[in-house]
Amino acid sequence: MSVAIRVIPCLDVDAGRVVKGVNFEGLRDAGDPVELAKRYNAAGADELTFLDVTASSGNRETTFDVVRTTAEEVFIPLTVGGGVRSADDVDRLLRAGADKASINTAAVERPEVIREITHRFGSQVLVLSLDARRSNDPSLPSGFEVTTHGGRTGSGRDAIEWAREAAESGVGEILLNSIDADGTKEGFDVEMIAAVRAAVHVPIIASGGAGDPSHFPAAIAAGADAVLAASIFHFGPVDMIARVKQAIKEAGHPVR
After folding, report:
1. Measuring CA to CA, which residue among 255, 250, 254, 235 is closest to residue 45?
2. Cα–Cα distances in Å, from 89 out to 81, 111, 171, 193?
3. Helices and strands counted in the chain (H then E)
4. Measured between alpha carbons, how far apart are the two ends of the chain, in Å?
5. Is 27 buried (19+), middle (13-18) or exposed (0-12) by CB count in 10 A?
6. What's phi and psi for 228, nearest 5 deg?
7. Are 146 and 182 in contact (CB under 8 A)?
8. How far is CA 23 from its chain centroid?
9. Above 80 in pLDDT, residue 191?
10. Which of 36, 138, 178, 253 is most solvent-facing, going by the fewest CB within 10 Å?
11. How far is CA 228 from the centre of its chain?
12. Could you give the count of Cα atoms lying within 13 Å of 202 in the half-sphere of its Cβ?
């Protein structure tokens, strides 16, 4: 029997408020993270992802107090990222109530941190957040480049090669964010999803571009094991999670 597809709202947090932009820019306020988390928990979300979107670029720690309060209010798995740089950071997040930690910039800058974290806590706690954009750089075989610092900085690394390396190093999942599709509401980058799916065996969480329930089945068909979105849930009808799950089910994929 196939594993059920997970539907995951994403809370991008800046200075204690949920924000959302387009292509990682032009952030606008979307509400209180704890209140939104409670709403999504009640609406049937399978998990929540909490990303402190300026933690790495601003060189500051994840807002542990908000994480702790959120974890006390919801009863579904909570993944937290933003500013995670070490196994000790993961330890603090887990103690604050997170179930999994997401790492991006620090892993690109120092890949061995992946093994340090997974050796201490196991692969199941670590999610690689891979923010990728299309590139014409001939040195990138796949045409997708890894970015860091919340999508602000190009790394010069090929995204598919990095996904493969990170999976081999022990990450439990890959949260694949399309910078180009982010916030556009025009659909997921299915080409990118398929390319990563062909390279790794760990679960892929597709992110970036969802604007309608009909967009989600395409991401799953391309190889995603879970689907993550923000705008469609924050600014859409209160029953949007149910609508998304219905669209996935009608396309023939198992949902919870």
Report:
1. 255
2. 10, 16, 16, 29
3. 10, 12
4. 13
5. middle
6. -125, 140
7. no
8. 14
9. yes
10. 138
11. 7
12. 21
Residue whose pair of structure tokens reads 């995603």 in the numeric block: 224
Confidence of residue 59 (pLDDT cuts 50, 70, 90): very low
User: Is 12 annotated in the active site?
Assistant: yes
* Tens digits of residue pLDDT in 1-33: 468 999 999 998 877 778 765 544 555 666 788
Taking phi first (over 0 means left), then psi (-120 to 50 degrees means alpha), and beta for anything else, what does residue 89 get? alpha
Residues in contact with 124: Cβ distance below 8 Å, sequence separation at least 6, in sequence order: 100, 172
Lookup result for tokens 């009808």:
237
Catalytic residue among 14, 52, 89, 131: 131
Token pair for 125: 């706690």
Quick: pLDDT tens for 228-243. Answer: 998 899 888 889 999 9
CA nearest neighbour of 48 among 70, 73, 2, 79: 79
Segments of the chain assigned E as strands = 6-14, 17-22, 25-31, 48-52, 78-81, 100-103, 126-134, 144-148, 153-158, 173-178, 204-207, 226-229
Q: Is 232 helix (H, G, I), strand (E, B) or coil?
A: helix
For 39, the token pair is 């709403």
pLDDT tens profile 128-160? 999 999 999 999 999 999 998 767 788 899 999
Between strands 48-52 and 126-134, the pairing is: unpaired
Annotation marks residue 46 as catalytic: no
pTM for the model stands at 0.92
Tokens read off for 119:
């050796």
Q: How confident is the model at residue 201 (pLDDT cuts 50, 70, 90)?
A: very high
